[in-house]
């Protein structure tokens, strides 16, 4: 089947719409960027579409009516592609009752924004599967597409159909896309590091059933918004905005909004033994109206210790049922110049449960934070055999809280003006 050539004006329009700036220092999309590098990343500049190498899915028989299955036609279009091709989705709603699979590197998938919709036709299947069995593909780009799940359905309804699953590819770029009511927007799947370096840039996630984005290592989440539409505030019908998997490293979340998350805004969780989750940065982000803020915790004391984590210049507002920041384990955590306004607890350190015995939180610095209008400003407790080593609270301002600071039962935590 002959490929359709894109009109020159459409290619030029796409090129102009994607103009941004190159990452700082000219780093590649997959280069690790995080706490130790202290790099501020910016959106990737995508190259113009080569009109001579466009594959239009309509030429393979898609209907785009939102009712007829377009899976076979779209899969045929993808299977016909070679490195350097771009698969174009003209305006329409493309029903996919099962995922379409990408097994080739150096492909671009693009459409016309809100007018090019990939619609999940199942409650359990993602729409677009980049890689199938962990293939280390490279150079994949997804831009200006809308992924439609089933808004109003959540994990407690048995709904898990996702938008994009990345299983093996490295350095995937997902830019200027919308995800509406998906089980997850992006799932970086496999053992830690199997999928690596996914960049989610200028994307809008509205409503999710399980987790907004599952991180597997090397992710950069830049200028995105995650806004949950789950009306149930407390029963965990849905879950985290971001989940950072055990042993992940080199993750940057920057200039991003997470709002209305019904469990954790973001969870860095250690499950695998004798591993490290390292070099993770949250910078210039806003977290609003969430049940809980960011938590760093683990399944047991030796599981995926969080090392070199930085949370800076972020705003936490109306964290309505738990701490804005809850740090239960780690080594080398910096919490700097954040604003916490209206939280049950502003900064909570330790407070280990009986199922978290003998945990250690070491070399933490909380400096220059403003905590206001909450129940409890700063709270640290060494419970159930847990201990603090070199934990320093310095130059933080706590105002208009029912209790400003309670560290009476936290040996190893020092407080300075």
Any key phrases for this structure?
417 residues, 14-stranded parallel beta sheet, disordered N terminus, elongated, 23-stranded parallel beta sheet, mainly beta, single chain, 2 helices, 2 domains
Can you describe this structure in just a few lines?
The protein is 5% helix and 44% strand. The chain has 417 residues and is mainly beta. It has a 23-stranded parallel sheet that branches. The chain has a 14-stranded parallel sheet with strand order 1-3-6-9-12-15-18-21-24-27-29-31-34-37, with no helix packed on it.
Give the tally of β-strands. Answer: 37
Shape, per Cα inertia axes: elongated
State the low-pLDDT regions, or none: 1-38
Fraction of residues in β-strands? 35-45%
Main sheet properties: 23 strands, parallel
Give the rounded overall mean pLDDT. Answer: 90
Number of domains: 2
Protein structure class: mainly beta
Number of helices: 2
Helix percentage range: under 10%
Query: What value does the Rg take, in angstroms?
Result: 22 Å
State the end-to-end distance: 72 Å
């Amino acid at each position: 089947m002959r490929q359709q050539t894109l009109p020159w004006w459409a290619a030029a329009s796409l090129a102009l719409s994607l103009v941004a700036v190159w990452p700082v220092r000219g780093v590649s999309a997959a280069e690790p960027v995080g706490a130790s590098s202290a790099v501020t990343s910016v959106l990737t500049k995508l190259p113009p579409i080569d009109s001579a190498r466009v594959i239009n899915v309509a030429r393979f028989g898609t209907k785009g009516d939102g009712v007829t299955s377009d899976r076979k036609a779209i899969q045929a279009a993808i299977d016909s592609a070679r490195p350097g091709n771009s698969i174009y989705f003209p305006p329409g709603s493309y029903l996919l009752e099962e995922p379409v699979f990408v097994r080739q590197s150096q492909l671009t998938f693009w459409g016309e924004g809100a007018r090019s919709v990939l619609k999940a036709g199942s409650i359990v299947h993602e729409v677009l599967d980049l890689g199938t069995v962990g293939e280390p593909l490279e150079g994949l780009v997804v831009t200006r597409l809308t992924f439609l799940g089933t808004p109003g359905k959540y994990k407690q309804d048995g709904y898990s159909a996702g938008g994009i699953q990345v299983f093996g590819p490295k350095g995937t770029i997902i830019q200027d896309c919308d995800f509406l009511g998906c089980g997850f927007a992006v799932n970086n799947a496999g053992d830690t590091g199997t999928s690596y370096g996914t960049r989610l840039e200028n994307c809008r996630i509205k409503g999710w059933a399980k987790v907004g984005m599952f991180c597997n290592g090397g992710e950069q989440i830049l200028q995105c918004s995650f806004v949950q539409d789950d009306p149930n505030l407390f029963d965990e019908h849905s879950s985290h905005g971001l989940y950072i998997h055990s042993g992940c490293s080199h993750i940057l979340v920057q200039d991003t909004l997470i709002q209305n998350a019904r469990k954790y805004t973001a969870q860095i969780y250690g499950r695998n033994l004798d591993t490290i989750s390292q070099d993770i940065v949250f910078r210039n982000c806003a977290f609003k109206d969430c049940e809980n803020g960011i938590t760093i915790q683990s399944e047991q004391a030796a599981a995926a210790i969080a090392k070199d984590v930085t949370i800076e210049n972020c705003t936490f507002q109306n964290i309505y049922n738990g701490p804005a920041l809850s740090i239960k384990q780690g080594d080398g955590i910096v919490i700097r110049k954040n604003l916490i306004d209206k939280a049950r607890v502003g900064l909570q350190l330790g407070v280990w449960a009986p199922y978290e015995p003998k945990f250690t939180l070491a070399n933490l610095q909380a400096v220059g934070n403003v905590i206001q209008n909450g129940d409890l400003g700063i709270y640290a407790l060494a419970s159930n055999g847990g201990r603090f080593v070199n934990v320093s609270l310095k130059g933080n301002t706590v105002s208009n809280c029912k209790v400003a600071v309670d560290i009476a039962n936290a040996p190893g935590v020092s407080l300075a003006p």
